[in-house]
């Protein structure tokens, strides 16, 4: 064996990182990930359209698919195996609460609490949406001076079109709900949209955002509305579906990727209290979001096989294969 070449030991890692990207629900097209081209990405800045949700804990993968045996001869003996069913599950706990982590951790649609001029439940009258002016970008929203005065730094805005009776999967750029029949709520798309951003600064009629809107530059028909929080429901017929990518980086720089093209939330909202004091003593608990998904199949374009997950390993340089 030449100097500088070695066999890698089993990876040692401190954490698992989670990244999610929206599935095109109408076309059933998942987000793609090619570890040979994208495997070296900056873990704090994933390639589009992947969204970093930080570190997770209690990451568990379970395959519940079944194999069957084909027997032949007398007496019958196993000739070969065939795959009888495909089924797999993934579960873990999110370490932070955001719009997206809450949505992924519930088995129903997730909604924005639109700021209301008076008290009331979600679904009641909200402060009117305001028209977005020409010159807006994904990080800068131009409004009339009067409309801009209704927003303050540190607030959250939702940007989407008025609801005009559409049915099917709705919401831009991510399908946030499935509408079976039309109803009257002009603000509905902004209630369920994932096109949100934090307002960093308000100056001369322009809202400067802390990060880009997921939907990019707003269209001429979209409007902005203030959001004060988020809510979800126990029940309903809508299931969240996203592409998932879970990354483990070893202490030597090696990486393990678990790419699930289609993950559908399979459990209702659930939280787990995590004691902050040693041995569970004390009264302080960190409330963690518990997520549980079922993997749905895709067809691998290379050979036409139906698969649920791709596991990839990128070794450290000079490691023997």
Structure description:
The chain has two domains: 16-107 and 239-314, no CATH class; 111-231, no CATH class. The chain is 6% helix and 41% strand. The chain is built from four helices and 21 strands. The radius of gyration is 23 Å and the shape is globular.
Itemize the secondary structure elements and their pairings.
Layout: E1 16-22, H1 35-38, E2 51-63, E3 66-72, E4 77-85, E5 88-94, H2 99-104, E6 110-114, E7 130-131, E8 140-142, H3 145-148, E9 156-160, E10 168-170, E11 177-179, H4 188-192, E12 196-203, E13 206-209, E14 223-232, E15 241-249, E16 255-265, E17 271-275, E18 285-295, E19 298-299, E20 306-307, E21 310-314
Summarize the entry for a quick read.
The chain is built from four helices and 21 strands. The chain is mainly beta.
């Amino acid at each position: 064996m030449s100097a500088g070449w070695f066999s890698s030991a089993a990876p040692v890692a401190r954490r698992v990182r989670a990244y999610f990207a929206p599935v095109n629900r109408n076309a059933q097209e998942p987000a793609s990930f090619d570890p040979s081209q994208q495997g070296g990405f900056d873990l704090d800045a994933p390639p589009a359209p992947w969204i970093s949700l930080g570190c997770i804990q209690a990451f568990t993968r379970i395959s519940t698919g079944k194999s069957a045996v084909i027997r032949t001869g007398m007496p019958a003996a196993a000739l070969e195996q065939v795959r009888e069913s495909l089924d797999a599950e993934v579960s873990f706990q999110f370490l932070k609460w955001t719009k997206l982590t809450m949505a992924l951790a519930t088995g129903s649609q997730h909604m924005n609490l639109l700021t209301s001029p008076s008290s009331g439940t979600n679904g009641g009258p909200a402060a009117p949406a305001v028209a977005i002016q020409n010159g807006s970008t994904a990080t800068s929203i131009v409004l009339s001076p009067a409309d801009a005065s209704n927003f303050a730094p540190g607030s959250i805005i939702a940007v989407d079109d008025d609801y005009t009776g559409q049915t099917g999967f709705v919401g831009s750029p991510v399908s946030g709900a499935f509408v079976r029949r039309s109803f009257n709520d002009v603000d509905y798309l902004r209630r369920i949209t994932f096109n949100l951003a934090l307002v960093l600064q308000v100056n001369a009629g322009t809202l400067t955002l802390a990060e880009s809107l997921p939907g990019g530059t707003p269209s001429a028909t979209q409007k902005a509305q203030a959001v004060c929080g988020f809510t979800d429901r126990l029940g309903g017929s809508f299931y969240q579906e996203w592409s998932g990518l879970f990354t483990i980086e070893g202490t030597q720089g090696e990486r393990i990727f678990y790419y699930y093209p289609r993950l559908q939330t399979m459990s209702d909202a659930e939280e787990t209290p995590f004691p902050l004091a040693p041995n569970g003593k004390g009264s302080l608990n960190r409330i963690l979001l518990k997520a549980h998904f079922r993997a749905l199949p895709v067809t691998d374009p290379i050979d036409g096989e139906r698969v649920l997950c791709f596991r990839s390993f990128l070794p450290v340089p000079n490691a023997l294969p």
